Amino acid sequence: MTYIPARPNGLPDNYISGASWQFDKLRFFPRGRDALVFGLSAKIKKGGRVLFPAFFCARSLDLFTSYEFDVEWLDVCDDLSFGLDRLAERLDSGNIEAVVVSDFFGWSSQNMQKVIELAKERQILVIRDCCHSALSWQSEQIRADLTVFSFRKTLPVWDGGALIGCGSSPSSMQNSSLARDVRREVIRKLERALGHVGIINPYPVLDFVRRASAVASAEPEKLCDEIRPSRSLVRWLNNAGALHKVARTRRENFLFLQEALRPSGLSSLFPVLGEHDVPQVFPLKTPHASSLVKFLRSHGVGAVRWPGNELPSKVRASPEIFPMANEMNDLIACLPLHQDLERWELEKMASLVNEWSIAGS
Ligand SMILES: Cc1ncc(COP(=O)(O)O)c(C=O)c1O
After folding, report:
1. Angle at 155 between CA 150 and CA 158, to 5 degrees
2. Which in 35, 313, 317, 343 has the greatest CB count within 10 A?
């Protein structure tokens, strides 16, 4: 059984010091969503209306309603960016106080600069959501009022919610939990060992647990407080060489997969990698995304759909208002391409996709 994990697990081979992130400009949280709510609470009043792309994961926004923000959706274009005319119209008519622009799957959103200008002309707060891929962000690039990150989606750490635009953390901040660091490390080792043994396909089990816990959990999400970053995250962020290598490997893996998937006739939603884009996944476009993901998971590949079942219910219920968000959600299968995958694993994954596609999906 092949096991091609969805997430990276490895530590860097060696530590090259050199901080590429300025800690004094960041505030840290367990998750990206905590950073987002913290930033919004600091900048707009309770009950404020926040505009999100309709292509989004509703679960990450459960917190918003409990923190009394009014979430509104705007449909996206076929590259997942906001259409400028439609955005301007909505900003003029909707009592919007803040707009969130997402760099989906690690690709910089088209029109980012224009969106920021449109919002600023109207004195509306702009939040750039770099949660999918923190390493795509360049400090010298155009600035939103707030920028949020979720390092845990790129690096093997349990935390990594972070925020730029609200100053730095107070020095009295509590240390983050050592126990969670240790637990993460134990799980990491276990996952690696199981993966190497290669006799268990964890995905059917994980899918079952996810379905069962979704049914069981009636608990609303809770906001987590600001924390000091975990020791592992600090080590990564102080290691410019290792971060550079992660970014380079993800870009190379994208290009490799792009070639290797040619026989399938399928391609990435974003065909071109911009100079600074660091992909989080390979967003493969296929009319049968759901069946491809099922097929790959049954073969031990950590493919996922995003947002999949977590597309906001209001968006899903109104395909006439949000046609593109619904369509794109049905069309995208996310293949892993993280830094820990080896060439043979990428080849294996590509040959599975090619085989599936040639066999007629
Ligand atoms: C686009 C986007 N933004 C923000 C978040 C929130 O990140 P986190 O899961 O770290 O709270 C997610 C989570 O999936 C996301 O996909």
Report:
1. 65
2. 35
Q: What spatial distance separates the first Cα and last Cα of the chain, rounded to whole Å?
A: 21
- Whose tokens are 């070639």? That residue is 259
CATH architecture of 23-164: 3-Layer(aba) Sandwich (3.40)
Domain range annotation of the chain: 23-164, 202-214+224-358
Question: What is the distance in A from the centroid of ligand 1 to the CA of 197?
Answer: 32
Which atom in ligand 1 lies closest to the alpha carbon of residue 129? 3
pLDDT at 277: 95
Pocket test for ligand 1, best of 132, 146, 210, 334 (most atoms within 8 A of CB): 132
What class, spelled out in words, does domain 202-214+224-358 have in CATH? Answer: alpha beta
Model pLDDT, residue 136: 92
pTM of the prediction? 0.91
Residue nearest atom 3 of ligand 1, based on CA coordinates: 131
Cβ(281) – ligand 1 distance below 6 Å: no
pLDDT-flagged residues of the chain (< 70) = 1, 11-19, 139-142, 172, 174-178, 184-185, 187-189, 191-192, 194-200, 205-206, 209-210, 213-221, 361
For residue 147, what is the enclosing H or E element? strand 146-150
- Taken in order 5, 11, 14, 19, is the CA torsion positive or negative? positive
131 lines ligand 1 (CB under 6 A): yes
Determine the atom of ligand 1 nearest the C-alpha atom of 102: 1
- With the most atoms of ligand 1 within 8 angstroms of its CB, the residue from 7, 60, 61 to mutate is 60
